[in-house]
């Protein structure tokens, strides 16, 4: 028994005595706000300095779009397919990344949200349609540009993404 102080006897003592006695016995306790302060947890807000362009409304249905994640200087960058967002596992995470030329982007399936794919309609890259957890598809970006891509089954839910290559 290493407890230095019995909370039970403390409560009994304060209940039975006056406020003056409570003050005297309240050396280390920080209680006393009556539990009125309930929900003050920190939220997952976007990094304040992250650029958040509108891309002509490309992300207007994409609830998990939280700005362009700067991943320049990396040889390889991973994007989750079936990340949490858009009402389920219907998101790319992050939705928008910025990488350097020569970077290989690896899309990795979480197994959530059903069947997904990664399609660049202009023909630079296209994965197969699959729901398999751990499936990966990769593309190396050798030219600068803005590459918009979608998951065909969930595009209307907002499951779209962008790779900016600089
Ligand atoms: Cu999808």
Automatic annotation (TrEMBL):
Keywords of this entry: Copper, Electron transport, Membrane, Metal-binding, Transport
Pfam families membership: Copper-bind
Sample GO molecular function, one term: electron transfer activity
Cofactor binding, per record: The crystal structure with reduced Cu(1+) has also been determined.
Annotated localization: Membrane
Needed co-factor(s): Cu(2+)
Gene Ontology CC annotation, any one: membrane
Residues annotated for Cu cation binding in this entry: 116, 151, 154, 159
UniProt domain Blue (type 1) copper: residue ranges: 83-166
Primary location recorded for the protein, binned into one broad class: membrane
InterPro entries in alphabetical order: BlueCu_1, BlueCu_1_BS, Cupredoxin, Halocyanin, Plastocyanin, TAT_signal
Region annotation Disordered: where it falls in the sequence: 28-55
Descriptive protein name: Halocyanin domain-containing protein
Species, as recorded: Haloferax litoreum
């Amino acid at each position: 028994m290493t407890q230095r102080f019995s909370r039970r006897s403390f409560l009994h003592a304060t209940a039975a005595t006056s406020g003056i006695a409570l003050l005297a016995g309240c050396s280390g306790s920080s209680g006393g706000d009556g539990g009125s302060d309930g929900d003050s947890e920190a939220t997952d807000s976007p990094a304040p300095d992250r650029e958040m362009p509108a891309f002509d409304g490309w992300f207007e249905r994409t609830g998990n779009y939280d700005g362009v994640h700067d991943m320049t200087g990396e040889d390889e960058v991973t994007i989750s397919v079936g990340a949490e967002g858009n009402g389920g596992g219907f998101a790319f995470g992050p939705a928008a990344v910025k990488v350097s030329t020569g970077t290989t982007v690896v899309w990795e399936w979480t197994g959530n949200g059903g069947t997904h794919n990664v399609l660049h309609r202009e023909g630079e890259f296209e994965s197969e349609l699959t729901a398999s957890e751990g499936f990966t598809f990769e593309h190396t970006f050798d030219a600068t540009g803005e590459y918009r891509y979608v998951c065909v089954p969930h595009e209307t839910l907002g499951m779209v993404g962008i790779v900016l290559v600089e």
